[in-house]
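Appendix B. Chain record.
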Amino acid sequence: MTAPSSSATQTSTHQVTSAPETPKTSPSPINNAPAHPPKPAAPVEQPPSKAAKPALSAQKPNEAAAKPKEAPHKSPSAPIDHSGSHWAMTYSPYTRSGNCKQSSDIATDVASIAAKGFSSLRLYSTDCNGLSSVATAAQSHNLNLILGVYISDSGISAARPQIHEIVTWANNNGHWKGVEMIVVGNEAVFNNFVSAEELASFVSEAKKAFKRAGYDGLVTLTETVDILAQHADVLCPVSDIAAANIHPFFNGKITASGAGEFVASQLELLAEICPGKEAYNLETGWPSKGSANGAAVPGSWEQRAAVEGIRKMAGAKSAFFSFMDDEWKEEGEWGVERSWGCSQLFD
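Structure tokens predicted for this chain:
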């Protein structure tokens, strides 16, 4: 199957919501200081682009939303166990040309993620034998896994075999060791691949299949904050946590230096959208190249400032996007889709 993509493989319209701008100050090197608790602030915005492969994220609509009213084997209502200022890194096992990486290269990448102090690694799908090569490498470095079932424009029927692949992998391993959560769908409603009702039904189906196979950990879905707000009555009940992809760049009023405050405020809003559930940011970052989206300006300096701010204010609940630039993607709107690699900022 083609690889899922949260950024370069989708297009969308951007509705800008207002949010405070922060003055540009010189960013200091990223370190492992403890993350500050999220603080309220602005509304939201995000999107992705059209290609073929599980894209990581980038174009998302404005997420300002109305407020509607082992790590495996953990109670679905329990918070995720992690510490430090950067929880997870997103990872796709593709070369710069879009082919599958060799297992030796994957092992090197995963070792690098672990060495940078991350406790978890997020996969978007079962592509490129990721369940075997990535999971094996992650477990050897005591990294937890955030597994994914990717839903493309081919819909749920094409995604369903991934459930079987995950169950088969777990059965072959004899356990679900290291699986922190399973994410069913990545902005599938936002991209009009499925309806909210179809996604909710598929999440419930997947949860039952995983439970029958002995998994009693967290299962969720992830969308943009505004999509979750619009469909909270349908999507929140089937999710064990409240999860969204939060990208400050796609709100044209947010500067790089204001990215951390923005993400923290969106996490607070997310918790209100799905009351009683822990809120997590499953994809976030800032592009290092491209054209400006209003006050949101791409660049190496800006990426460092944005990632540092997110780490300080919401890093313990955020999955940073992404391990390396995705050269196989189309450049997309603003020419930013290939340029989200940020692992070098955690050295």
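Further analysis of this model is presented in Appendix C.
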